[in-house]
Each structure stands twice: as C-alpha cells, then as structure tokens.
Amino acid sequence: MQRVAFCTPVNPVESGISDYSEELLPYLGQYVDLTLVVDAEVQPTNQQLLAKLPIIRIGDLAKQHARQPFDAIIYHMGNSPAHSRFWQSLQSLPGIVVLHDYVLHHLMLWHAANRLKNVASYRQLMQHYYAEQGSSIAQRMERGQLGDAVFDFPLSEPVIAQASSLIAHSQYVLERVQPQRPNLATSLVPMGVPLLPAPDRLAARQALQLPAEIPIWASFGHINPYKRIEQALQAFAQFRRTYPDARYILVGSVSPSYDLKALLQRLQLGESVQVTGYVDHADFNRYVAAADLCFNGRYPSAGETSASLLRLLGAGRAVLVSDIATFSELPADVVAHVPVDRDEVALIAAYAQRLWADVALREAMETNARRYVTEKHSLPLAARGYADHLSRVQGWPRLEPQREPLWDINAVTIQHSIAQTIGRKAAQLGLVDDDAPLLDRLAARLRNLLT
C-alpha cells in the first residue's frame, strides 16, 4: 500500500478539523498506509488513533521524507493558529492541500506575529497580493481596527500557490481557486460526518429537563455577530407573539467581543432564551435532538463548509441557513435558505411559523435532511473521494479498500492528562512563551472576529 503523510490538527486541539480528521482517518486507512503528522506540542488523546497509526511531529517530516520518501503528503489548512507549522512545512515541502477555509487571514496574521515574530512579513503579504488597499487594511489591523473587510482579503493565495494539488469541500472554494491556478489539479470531495442513530426528541428533552410540547429553537457553535444571532433573536421575538412558551437555546461559547446579554435585554426575551456555554459531546447531541428548528446563520463567510451544520442535518433537524457562499449549495428541499437582506428577520419568522404549524412539512424536511447526509456526506464516501484524488494526481492505479476501517469511531476512548487540560485552558487565555503583548492581542481579536 502507498505511504501517505497526513498533516492535521487532532484532539486535544480544539478545532473542528481535529474531529473531522479523526473521523476520516479510519476510513482513509482502508486505502493507504497513513502516517499521522501532528504539531510539535500536541499529544493526541484519541486512544484508537494512538494504537493504530504511526505518529510523527511536523518538525521531523522533512527528515523522515528524505530518509524514506512518502508517496504523498496531505496538508490540512484552516483559518486558525493550529495550522501554522503545517503552513511552514508546506513552503519547503509542497504537498496536497485540503483547503477547509478560503479565508486564511487569521492564520497568516498569527503566523507572522507569533511564529515569525515579524509582523512586517504580514504587511508585505498584504501589499504583495492586494497592493495599496492591502497595505492600508494591514495598518488598520495592526491598530486593532478590525472589521468585515478582512473577508475580502483572504490571504489564501500563498497556500494555493504552494499546493501540488488541492481538495475542497465546496464549489464555492474551487471557483475561487481556479482563476489563481487554472492548471492546478483539484477535486471536490464531500465532507464526511458520522450518521448517528435517529434522535429521540422526547427522551432528550427529559434528560435536559425541557418541556415536552413547546417549540424549541436552537443554534450551535461559537456565538459572535457573524452568526446572525441578533437577526434570529428578533425573529424569535416575533414568533413568541403567537407562541409565548417558545424557547431559544444557544449552545456554545460567547465571543468576549459580543454583548449578548445587552441584546437579550433590549429584545426583552428574558428567560425564553437559554445560553448554555460550552457543553460536552453527549449534551450537545441531546440539544440537537431536543430542537424543533435550528438556525445556522453566517455573514460574511470565510468560505468554510460547516461540519456542525451537516451534523444537524444528519440528525434530521429542520434547519434555516443564510443563503450565502457554501450554504447556498445545499438543496432547497433539505434546508430553508434565508437571504441576508432587509427581509431577513421577517423571513426567518415566517419560516418558523410555517414549519411549526405544518407538522407534515417539517417532518418531510427532517427526512430529506437525514437522507441527504446519508447519501452525500458519509465517511466512506469522503474517503473514496480522497482515494480517487490521490490515484488521479499521483498517477496510481485506482485505489480500492484493502481492509476494514482501522477503528470504530463510535467506540473512541479519549484520555486527558491534567497537564493537557491546563495547557489547553492557558492557550485559550493567550498565555504563551515569549509573549508579545500587542501582537497576541491583535491575533486574539482577529480570532474572535473570524471564529
């Protein structure tokens, strides 16, 4: 079997790409012999992964490749500091890039500020790719004047330039890559997510001590202005005029730069809105099961494909999404698309009224959602897409599965050490060696902006 180096964050790195990779690896391992390549400070916590795969540090990849060349190297690139050393390696040792986010601005700023300790290199990139306008934006960023403009300056160009070939999970990303490198080999590979057993709404509500009969809205993930939460809450306030017992549950952490409490007070929503903060995996799934209607908004977009959205659809939930970027590619009978315009609030409220009143319509939408993920976004289908890309770009015969999945993702054991837990929390607070206060503050603010 061909040997493939797979460079990615894994748990305990708190990134959706960590979960994505750990779920994909056992299926991709049916086709090739994988070596997992992790960041220098990361000690994987997935016990099955530790038992089944050889693991090396990214700093050792070049030496290992020189001594015994890999047949292919895959780099996962996303818009977070977790990919900084992978970007550093890609510059000297090109490979296949899996571009999870089209906007990599946060990664590039953090890399310049913290890895290189040279913010001037960030300015130079902005000047090189976007001329005077880029230089002006860079100066504003350094002064902490962050805004939506960063979404128009993706800084993914240098990563695309280094790719030997590229995998994306959406046409949206591929359409933006193609003009930059028309001859680059690319593939559209579906994002794979595990399909859990059909959820039991009543049992979930009992476990969470939620009323059985009331309408429940829910949104999942980090809460910030770009998730359109304010517009959803305004629509929810209208919905409550007809259904005063309705509840909206916000499941996830709240950005420090977002005054959610003031917003709830202004809308006079009181205890009808529940903010859970971070919840563990089991409770996350219970909240998904308990919900009647989910809202997944975004504007502007970093061009990401949302694994959390696919998990909601796989659970058979009725979901409203912003009609933007990758979300627009979802079929109209699977999600309800909400244009980001002056009618946004009214349309969210109207969709909610119709879906709650028309049980047959809501159930049909739930059935379509689960079928869509089953047929289009399974983990075996994702692994097949990777295998086909590898065969094509490397000139190999078509890869076929040679064995069963390397492990059962439903039986994963996670082991956390005290040191890992403390280190992870310290990293969340921005406590790093050789702290550069101004640059870290800039990077932290941008992280809140883009996550």
TrEMBL record:
Protein name stated in the entry: Glycosyl transferase group 1
Glycosyl transferase family domain mapped to chain residues: 203-371
InterPro entries noted in UniProt: Glyco_trans_1
Membrane spanning residue stretches: none
A GO molecular-function annotation: glycosyltransferase activity
Source domain of life: Bacteria
The entry's keywords: Transferase
Species this chain originates from: Herpetosiphon aurantiacus (strain ATCC 23779 / DSM 785 / 114-95)
Cited SUPFAM superfamilies: UDP-Glycosyltransferase/glycogen phosphorylase
CDD domains in the cross-refs: GT4_PimA-like
